[in-house]
């Protein structure tokens, strides 16, 4: 079993793991294990340079053809509750009338 670090906020040694997070029961601080190993999380930015985070609402800034169909995601389409992922496409989301999609952050702006 690996040794867990102390809490970065209150320095408590009583840290425990819950799912994918480390939690301090004394101050309530939660952080990811990658933060303890010195790794930095990828930073995703929209077309205007604003930092995106999970759960944000974004607006499509360009007509996007959907591969394999004749459908198009129109300019101005609002996409709620995005999820950021790594890889070729940065955003996993559901678009009303289209379904589950993967988008690149360069084609959206934060609402």
From TrEMBL:
Gene3D superfamilies for the chain: 2.20.25.10, SH3 Domains
Family of this protein: Belongs to the YjdM family.
Signal peptide positions on this chain: none
Source organism phylogeny: Bacteria, Pseudomonadati, Pseudomonadota, Alphaproteobacteria, Hyphomicrobiales
Organism: Jiella pelagia
Pfam hit, one: Zn_Ribbon_YjdM
Every Protein YjdM N-terminal domain range: 3-32
Limits of the Protein YjdM C-terminal domain: 45-110
Protein name as annotated: Zinc ribbon domain-containing protein YjdM
């Amino acid at each position: 079993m690996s040794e867990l670090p102390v809490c970065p906020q209150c320095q408590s040694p009583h840290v425990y793991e819950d799912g994918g997070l480390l939690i301090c029961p004394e101050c309530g601080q939660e952080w990811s294990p990658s933060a303890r190993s010195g790794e930095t999380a990828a930073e995703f930015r929209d077309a205007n340079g604003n930092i995106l985070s999970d759960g944000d609402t974004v607006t499509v800034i360009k007509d996007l053809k959907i591969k394999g169909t004749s459908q198009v995601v129109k300019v101005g389409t609002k996409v709620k509750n995005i999820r950021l992922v790594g890889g070729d496409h940065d955003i996993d989301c559901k678009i009303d009338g289209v379904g589950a999609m993967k988008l690149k952050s360069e084609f959206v702006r934060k609402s």
